[in-house]
Amino acid sequence: MLQTCIPLLIGIGLIYYQFSSFNETELERIKSYFRNANYFYVFLSILISLFGYWSRAYRWKYSLNHLGFQPKFHNSFFAVSISYLLNLTIPRSGEISRAMILKKYEGVPFDKGFGTIVAERVVDLLIFLLFVITAFLLQFEKISAFIFSHVSPNKIILLLAVGCIGLIFFLFIWRWAKWPIILKIKSKFNGLVEGMTSILKMKTKWKYLAHSFFIWFSYLMMFYVCVFSIPETANITFDVVIMGFIFGTLAVGFTNGGVGAFPISIAKVLVLYGIAEGAGTALGWIIWTSQTLLTIVLGLTSYLLLNIFNKN
User: What is the average per-residue pLDDT within 301-307?
Assistant: First the structure.
């Protein structure tokens, strides 16, 4: 219950904070952005997202085939769509539902199905880190100037020192401690490593990785095309788009599906590049609303079709 309520309350608080900071003139301007937006690009963004759903469901078959299972594609697609919907309620509950659906309709043991999903998350994390590194290299001057303008060099040195000490302490505990919780974490970590190495052993690993990159490419392009829906954001450069995409992705994990956090993160990032906060706020809400509606509609539809397609 707390896993659902706390992030949701944080999201509602962020929405209140964001809109209470605007005066009536600014709020009216934000409304005009919504009224005058070119929704062709929003629908194009939704279409691109559907390719991402398809690719994620299709990628899943490679790891399941490697384990000796041949699930029907429609069941994999429905499971993925339902998982996105459930993640809007309880974070990470969608991963459990995916494994449960395949166990019920395809006979895939829960632990094996869930293991393939964990492996996916590791691959996805590594690809996301590539985006972060790319953005940092492209925007090094802007990021460093922002950091040094808000944090003094002495504080940065102190943080680095504390971080190094903390890392040494962690490695010492990780290597020699025999506490039950450490042993449990080690077991989980070993499972992640095993999941990753199983991907490397696949005969179809290159197809698996190609789909993995395509999935994240579709996420990025879904975000990118929406930029053209508002004239004030249509001319921002691609490296700025990557920055917005990264912070938006991080915000999705901060609250339930990014409610409140996603739009405010987009607005704050774009302000650094001279985009009016009202325009950035409108863009953030347009992207978040369209994708959330897609998640809800596709998830509910998949839930209904799951029973119809598996009647026999």
Answer: 92
